[in-house]
Amino acid sequence: MSKRQTKSPEQRRAEVEALHNTLAEQVEALTTSEGWKRFLQVAATFHTYSLNNLLLILAQRPEASQVAGFRQWHQRGRQVRKGEKGIRIFGYSTKKITTEDEAGGETERRVPRFPILTVFDVDQTDPIDGVEQIENPARLLTGDDPHGITDTVTAWLAAQGWTLTVEPVVGGANGYTTTDGSRRVVVDNRLEPAAAAKTALHEAGHVILHTDDEPGEYIAHRGTKETEAESVAYVTAGLLGVDTSAYSVGYVAGWSGGDLDLIRQCADNVTRAVHVLAAAFEPAEAIA
């Protein structure tokens, strides 16, 4: 693949900043639309899980994105597929206990209980016929990868001691980066080349920014981490003249909660990662 025209460090920084600002502007436009309001109404019906339950969910199904119980999915117009293995988490309830004291009086108290519950990820469900479905604003990219982004990212990762493989990914995730020390990036083989290229950039963003985090750091700040990684993909692709907004805007809006301040606060990390990746597409002296 031929190298792109060298730009000065000042030109590069200005272009990165402009692209990141464009992403924030598009997120703002999306989050003021009627479609986004409808999407949020559905999203708001999902239970917020504790850190311990998030750890349990991701340990059993790392690619999980939205989980709910069998009946809750049915109420949202989706049916859990027959034979799907549920995700086991802890519930919470209290039981009223009545005790009698020495004087013959009764005392009531509530005792906490933590029953085991079963939930399912959205990718384990199908829409129920005749029920309106709210479309996810992040739409998978289609088409080719004319700049050879996936190949370039694969070579860059190999130089860092990582591997990138294209293989089946269970669930709704387009790819993932391992956190068990195996230093692997996996991209779903069902994706079209354009979507695979964008996913490779996203996962490379995780490699640069997040693989040295302390255990549990990603879980505790997942929205910020995903906002950063997708912003890296959007900006890096933009430097190559590739527009990933059809997917990236909805994805960033979802993980950031439409918080424009959060998106802008990620700018330093995004810029740092973009400069690292951009060096793989241009001579090293072009990046400062």
The major pleated sheet works out as:
3 strands, antiparallel
The sequence of SSEs as H and E is HHHEHEEEEEEHEEEHHHHHH
Average pLDDT rating: 88
Amino- and carboxy-terminal Cα gap: 22 Å
Structural category is: alpha+beta
Number of helices: 11
Main sheet: strand order: 1-6-3
List segments where confidence is low: pLDDT < 50 over at least 5 consecutive residues. Answer: 284-288
Shape: elongated
- Percent helix range: 40-55%
Strand content: 15-25%
Cα Rg: 22 Å
Count of β-strands: 10
Account of the 3D structure:
- By secondary structure, this protein is of the alpha+beta class.
- The protein has a domain at 9-45 and 136-286.
- The protein is 45% helix and 16% strand.
- It has helices spanning 9-30, 34-43, 51-60, 70-75, 149-159, 193-210, 217-220, 222-239, 245-256, 260-265, 267-278, and strands at 67-68, 78-80, 87-90, 93-100, 106-113, 116-121, 125-127, 163-167, 175-177, 184-188.
- The longest helix is centred in the first third of the chain and has 22 residues, at 9-30.
Summarize the structure.
The protein is built from eleven helices and ten strands. It has 288 residues and is α+β, with helices and mostly antiparallel strands. It has a domain at 9-45 and 136-286.
Topology:
Blueprint: H1 9-30, H2 34-43, H3 51-60, E1 67-68, H4 70-75, E2 78-80, E3 87-90, E4 93-100, E5 106-113, E6 116-121, E7 125-127, H5 149-159, E8 163-167, E9 175-177, E10 184-188, H6 193-210, H7 217-220, H8 222-239, H9 245-256, H10 260-265, H11 267-278
Parallel strand pairs: 8-10
Antiparallel strand pairs: 1-6, 2-7, 3-6, 4-5, 9-10
